[in-house]
UniProtKB/TrEMBL annotation:
InterPro entries: PhaG_MnhG_YufB. The keyword Transmembrane applies. Keywords: Membrane, Transmembrane, Transmembrane helix. This is Monovalent cation/H(+) antiporter subunit G. Belongs to the CPA3 antiporters (TC 2.A.63) subunit G family. It comes from the Bacteria. The keyword Transmembrane helix applies. The chain crosses the membrane at residues 6-30, 67-89. It holds the Pfam family PhaG_MnhG_YufB. NCBIfam families: CPA3_mnhG_phaG, PRK12674.1-2.
C-alpha cells in the first residue's frame, strides 16, 4: 500500500467521522431540552466535525494552497463558534430564556448562587 492510498483512506475516515459528528450535533440541537444544552450540542461536536472534514479534504487534495485555506477555515470556525455561543447564551440569560433549575453554577445572577466557596483551597 503506497502513502497516497494510505492518505486517501485516512481522508475517507476523517470525512466520515466529521459527517457523523455533524449529524450528532444536528440531532442534539433538535432533541435537547433547553437553550444552553442545545448551544453545547451545536458548538462542540460541530467544530470537531468541521476539523475532521477539513483534515480529510486536506489529506485527499494534498495541495499546499488548499491546505492553507482549510487551516484558515478551521481557525475561523473555532474562533467564531466560541464567541457566538457565548453571546447567544448571555443574551438568552438576560432575556430570561434559561431554565434556572438546570444550572449548577449561576455566575450571572445578582445574588449568591452557591453555598460552597469555589477555587483552590
Amino acid at each position: 500500500m503506497s502513502w497516497t492510498q494510505l492518505a486517501d483512506l485516512a481522508a475517507a475516515v476523517c470525512i466520515l467521522l466529521g459527517a457523523l459528528l455533524a449529524l450528532i450535533a444536528a440531532i442534539g440541537v433538535v432533541r435537547l431540552p433547553d437553550l444552553l444544552t442545545r448551544m453545547h450540542a451545536a458548538t462542540k461536536p460541530q467544530v470537531l466535525g468541521t476539523v475532521l472534514v477539513m483534515t480529510g479534504v486536506a489529506l485527499r487534495l494534498r495541495d499546499p494552497g488548499v491546505v492553507g485555506m482549510l487551516a484558515l477555515i478551521v481557525l475561523l470556525q473555532m474562533a467564531t463558534s466560541v464567541v457566538s455561543s457565548h453571546m447567544v447564551g448571555r443574551a438568552s440569560f438576560r432575556a430570561g430564556q434559561v431554565r434556572h433549575d438546570l444550572l449548577v453554577v449561576d455566575e450571572l445572577s445578582d445574588g449568591p448562587s452557591h453555598e460552597e466557596p469555589r477555587g483552590a483551597p
